[in-house]
Amino acid sequence: MKKIVFIGAGSMAEAMIGGWVKKECVQANKIYVTNRSDYTRLMYLKDTYGVQVLEKLADIEDADLLILAVKPKDAVAAMQSIAPYIGDHTAILSVLAGISIKTIEKGLYARPIARVMPNTSATIGMSASGIAFNTRVSAQQKKLYLQMLSAIGLVVEVEEDKLHAVTALSGSGPAYIYYLIEAFEKVGTEIGLPKEVVRQLMIQTLAGSASMLQSIDEEPNALRRKVTSPGGTTEAGIRALEAHHFNETISACIKSAEQRSRELAKGV
Ligand SMILES: NC(=O)C1=CN([C@@H]2O[C@H](COP(=O)(O)OP(=O)(O)OC[C@H]3O[C@@H](n4cnc5c(N)ncnc54)[C@H](O)[C@@H]3O)[C@@H](O)[C@H]2O)C=CC1
Ligand SMILES: O=C(O)[C@@H]1CCC=N1
């Protein structure tokens, strides 16, 4: 691909650009960025990653790929602004939460469209992404998208409707984990450790547990049992989690996010 244009230059665009440039998967000078009005932000991306700033919307005409990366509420306006200039051969990759392939086809006409739900860990090549395609995406294009997404982490192909679940779990997931670390830091300081020490200990604990799950062929439940001594500290902690409805809390979190993704699809 000679020209890839990001429509929207926020957190998710930066995470993908950062990941691709670092992994040398896409040459920075083939990536163009544009947004609604914040030119300083575009210059920051240019200076940091070596990407190009799109001079005017008409310059999308010869783009091979447009990446839709605005907020879902701005999607219709963004599509209306680019529709007059979009070239016949241009394919679309959307990272918009909720917004369906059908809506994108309505806004940008019949063309190859892929919807991906990455997460911000793309920055360090550790995204967990789900992807779905419309029928116009060729086998060769699919292969290319899967390669591009693999360069910034794990990618799993799913039916389009399942992207709501992917969004709720791994799209939003990093925020839940950061929230968890915030909670550990709060309580850790309450019971007498400096915040920095709590952070170090819990990041390592999180990374260690994730690596155990990746490298050892055992169920989470079995690994948990190995930590939990009868009558010990873990058992006391887990009992408190159960008493405070941990499973219901997680279930409410994921179902609310999934529901919100479905609402975004309806423009709510
Ligand atoms: N932030 C995240 O962790 C993830 C976000 N997403 C999706 O990525 C999309 C972008 O999210 P963020 O980067 O977090 O948002 P953001 O608010 O950081 O960035 C949005 C960008 O779109 C630009 N924009 C708004 N209207 C525009 C228009 N009409 N034309 C051109 N540019 C326009 C804004 O100026 C801004 O640069 C959303 O649809 C979100 O659902 C998907 C996965 C994870
Ligand atoms: O919060 C959001 O709507 C977006 C989608 C997944 C992560 N951030």
Automatic annotation (TrEMBL):
Pathway: Amino-acid biosynthesis; L-proline biosynthesis; L-proline from L-glutamate 5-semialdehyde: step 1/1
Pfam family, one: P5CR_dimer
Domain Pyrroline-5-carboxylate reductase catalytic N-terminal: start-end pairs: 3-98
Function: Catalyzes the reduction of 1-pyrroline-5-carboxylate (PCA) to L-proline.
EC number: 1.5.1.2
Lineage top rank: taxon: Bacteria
SUPFAM superfamilies: 6-phosphogluconate dehydrogenase C-terminal domain-like, NAD(P)-binding Rossmann-fold domains
Reaction(s) catalysed (UniProt annotation): L-proline + NAD(+) = (S)-1-pyrroline-5-carboxylate + NADH + 2 H(+); L-proline + NADP(+) = (S)-1-pyrroline-5-carboxylate + NADPH + 2 H(+)
Localization terms from the record: Cytoplasm
Protein name (Swiss-Prot/TrEMBL): Pyrroline-5-carboxylate reductase
Organism: Lysinibacillus odysseyi 34hs-1 = NBRC 100172
